[in-house]
Design a protein that fits this description.
DNA-binding, 2 domains, Tetracycline Repressor, domain 2, 199 residues, DNA-binding (chains A, B), transcription cis-regulatory region binding (chains A, B), 9 helices, DNA-binding transcriptional regulator, AcrR family (chains A, B), homodimer, mainly alpha
Chain lengths: 199, 199
DNA sequence: CCATTTACGAAACTGGAGTTGCGCAATTCA
DNA sequence: TGAATTGCGCAACTCCAGTTTCGTAAATGG
């Protein structure tokens, strides 16, 4: 069925998301101003609010788009695959800067996004679903490694991935400690090497 | 040295913190309104702002007070000690409810607190210091267990505690999965039992 | 062509955090 | 006692995210 009234300007979505992403990454969550996005995109605020009912929705849409290319791959080497995937998550976390702290931690923006998901039930459902999918894929990766004998037969996969992903978020948001490649490898070693089957 | 002018009403701090804690736990971060706290405490807003320069500072002070009695103890049984301590952390995380979601996750408030710490450099310094202390104590606990032979000699303690604490925060904030006693025990088992020295 | 439907833009409005100015109260020091 | 200092309450103010209203534009269907 063909939609009735005046069609939406399809260029607006793309342009707004691009501008919003730039603002979010450069200046953090509070630096993402609806007025400024509207002005830079050359549209009225109402046009933005028709597409995203609140600033929170726009911000989440921006982040979802940035995360879209975080792929998980199974090469048969569980250690390398985990390091690779956790690196992508870490890179995503490190990309966001807090407003006025270009060198600083991305903690603020990540925290704001968590808060946004809690403020709006629809965002919460959406993001939880996305993270559930990610979780399912990661658990399948671990499970496959367990089945083919790379990991202990009685391994409990769920808390294992919670620990890996959680350690990254914990450092970024809570302790402010760096999350670089060296740490990711150390983390995977700590969590995994002693889970490997013994020769 | 004796302070000069009119002394502060010491009852105000106590009363405000109690009221603010009730509001924060019941209605979440956004439900914590400065105007409402001032009204319920029977003081003017300026009196609050003289003590806490922003709502963020007040909220952080409330949480710090709630966490003050999270003690870490070393009984010589590393597994029990970790379960015990992580239970306290989990209880603190579970106490906070998001505004309008009494049954819901505490994710929102925790996220707001993270964001608050990022917004103000002074809060960030303070909370990072507090978490660094907590981290030091936990690492000492693990280290002691390692030295006395409960844990593997070549254990890397830092990522281990990141994993344990991180898994709790990750579930509360990101996936929304429950964090109850059963999970904490499962988590410690997953992270620790295979770190124990072999007989 | 004309009624209907939906999109758009401009501007005014709302609500809450945070700020400021001012008069008064309480305390110290000379 | 009196000047200086600091706390308090009241009220008006700024600022900005978000909302609402209304007039206009672009499309469809009869």
């Amino acid at each position: 069925m063909v939609p009735r009234g005046r069609p939406r300007d399809t260029q607006v979505d793309e342009r707004v998301l691009r501008i919003a992403a730039a603002l979010l990454l450069e200046r953090g969550y509070t630096g993402l101003s609806i007025d400024e996005v509207a002005e830079q995109a050359g549209v009225a605020k109402t046009t933005l609010y028709r597409r995203w009912p609140a600033k929170d929705h726009l911000a989440v849409a921006v982040v979802a788009r940035l995360q879209a290319d975080d792929e998980i791959t199974d090469t048969g080497d569980i250690r390398a695959d985990l390091v690779n995937y956790l690196e992508k998550i870490a890179a995503g976390l490190n990309r966001m800067r807090a407003a006025g702290h270009r060198e600083g931690p991305s903690a603020g923006t990540v925290g704001e996004l968590v808060a946004a998901a809690a403020r709006h039930e629809d965002i919460g459902r959406l993001t939880r679903k996305q993270y559930a999918e990610r979780n399912t894929l990661a658990l399948a990766l671990i499970e496959a490694a367990r089945v083919r004998g790379e990991l202990r037969a009685d391994l409990d996969a769920e808390p294992l991935f919670d620990q890996l992903a959680g350690a990254l978020y914990y450092r970024v948001m809570i302790t402010g400690a760096p999350v670089d490649r060296a740490y990711v490898e150390r983390l995977v070693s700590s969590a995994l090497e002693r889970n490997l089957t013994c020769p």
